[in-house]
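Need a sequence for this fold. Nothing fancy.
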């Protein structure tokens, strides 16, 4: 038997303004500029104010939004943005045209004497070489691909022959199937010395032992001295593991530059934050659309009522967008000031040992904002300081307690651990257990698993792989 019950639930529903604000808070400076331009393009009610702001009859082409009343009681001072400074809008993106990696290979192919059929196959193989210089498609699959796409019958032996020609091209090592072949191609292109000869033997016969740094095994198998092994290894580490990276394929590359969202300066010895002005255009209502709201006959026809509804919707959308930008700026400013206040001593001189443990909750409590809002502010934002440019995420870290009972940042422990590893005897590098003892002697009580975690986060390999001859 079905039973109907009536329940009352309280559901929080975000307003269009809140949704717009949340989306804008996440955007860094450059993306915000793009978003504003897109909004102007998509909302016909919005116009960008220019100096010559008249139509052919001398009437202003656009007017202030505040001149027109709507059902939304937003104060008039919130209905426009005028953030234009005297500075010209900076050109952040750069683009340069150079010879691409694959064009470089095809240019060299033009100097090789091949019949049209083999040249087609060679061009296909070049097209399959990835940007780092490697050919990761196996020969059997290439035979099938060439038959299907070029309608050319071939075999693995012929492909090996053509590939060997391509492997003679610059940059040396291109067309290799794996790292071992890539390094061997580079060694064989050099004038042979004893060290290079030994290096070639190591790569051909003892590559696995070399990658695992089992040096004693190599010494006993090759019957060479430690000095000879060291000379051979020096030759190997000079080689380029990614030959394709030597050619900049800048047809698809756009230089990515970090534009700081905040600027911090010292004034009278105290850190002071500002938000750099960027060219946000002053927004105004297009007069042609605004006049529709003043037309008393607009509601007499269905078309007129539809037009009136459209303009009002676009007007509200514009007002929400403008207010969302203002709220974004206030939220970013309050959050950054709270971070600077929390990390005051650090921002004086950038000394990492003064960077206190700080999590999102700390800043949320200082600003009265939600943790999720602080997370959005921190994401993809940068601050320019007198000691460098940093992502805001850099200033957040968990904390531990040292032997004196003081709370310290995990970043401080990582910095000290990295310094100790840099100073270690590379013939006998510290194990994780020994690092625990080293840190303990410095007053930092850390478990071995914590040391291992920090070491991995720093990208530092285990002791065996740090060992040198």
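Here you go.
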């Amino acid at each position: 038997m079905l039973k109907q019950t009536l329940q009352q639930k309280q559901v929080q529903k975000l307003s269009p303004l809140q949704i717009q604000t949340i989306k804008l808070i996440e955007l860094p400076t450059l993306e915000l500029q793009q978003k504003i331009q897109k909004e102007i393009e998509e909302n016909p009610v919005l116009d960008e104010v220019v100096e010559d702001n008249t139509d052919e009859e001398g009437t202003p082409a656009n007017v202030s939004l505040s001149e027109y009343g709507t059902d939304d009681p937003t104060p008039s001072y919130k209905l426009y943005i005028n953030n234009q400074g005297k500075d010209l809008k900076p050109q952040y993106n750069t683009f340069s045209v150079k010879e691409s990696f694959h064009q470089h290979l095809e240019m060299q192919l033009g100097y090789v004497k091949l019949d049209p059929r083999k040249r087609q196959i060679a061009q296909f193989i070049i097209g399959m070489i990835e940007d780092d210089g490697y050919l990761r498609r196996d020969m059997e699959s290439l035979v099938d691909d060439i038959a299907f796409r070029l309608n050319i019958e071939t075999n693995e032996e012929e492909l090996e022959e053509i590939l060997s020609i391509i492997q003679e091209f610059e940059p040396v090592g291109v067309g290799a199937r794996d790292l071992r072949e890539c390094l061997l191609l580079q060694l064989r292109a050099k004038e042979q010395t004893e060290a290079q000869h030994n290096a070639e033997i190591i790569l051909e016969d003892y590559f696995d032992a070399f990658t695992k740094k089992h040096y004693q095994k190599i010494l006993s198998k090759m019957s060479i001295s430690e000095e000879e092994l060291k000379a051979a290894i020096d030759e190997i580490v000079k080689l380029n593991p990614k030959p394709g990276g030597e050619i900049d394929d800048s047809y698809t590359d756009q230089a990515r530059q970090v534009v700081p969202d905040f600027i911090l300066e010292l004034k009278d010895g105290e850190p002071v934050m500002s938000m750099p002005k960027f060219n946000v255009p002053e927004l105004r209502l297009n007069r042609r659309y605004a006049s529709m709201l003043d037309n008393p006959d607009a509601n007499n026809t269905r078309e007129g009522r539809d037009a009136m509804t459209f303009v009002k919707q676009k007007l509200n959308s514009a007002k929400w967008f403008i207010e969302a930008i203002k709220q974004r700026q206030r939220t970013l400013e309050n959050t950054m000031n709270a971070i600077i206040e929390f990390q005051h001593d650090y921002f004086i001189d950038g000394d990492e040992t003064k960077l206190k443990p700080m999590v999102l909750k700390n800043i949320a409590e200082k600003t009265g904002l939600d943790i999720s809002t602080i997370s959005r502010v921190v994401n993809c934002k940068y601050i320019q300081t007198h000691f460098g440019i940093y992502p805001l995420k850099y200033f957040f870290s968990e904390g531990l307690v040292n032997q004196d009972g003081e709370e310290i940042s995990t970043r401080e422990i990582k910095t000290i651990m990295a310094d100790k590893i840099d100073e270690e005897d590379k013939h006998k590098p510290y194990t994780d257990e020994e690092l625990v003892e080293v840190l303990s002697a410095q007053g930092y009580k850390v478990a071995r698993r914590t040391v291992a975690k920090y070491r991995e986060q720093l990208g530092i390999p285990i002791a065996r792989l740090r060992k040198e001859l």
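For context: The longest strand covers residues 262-267.
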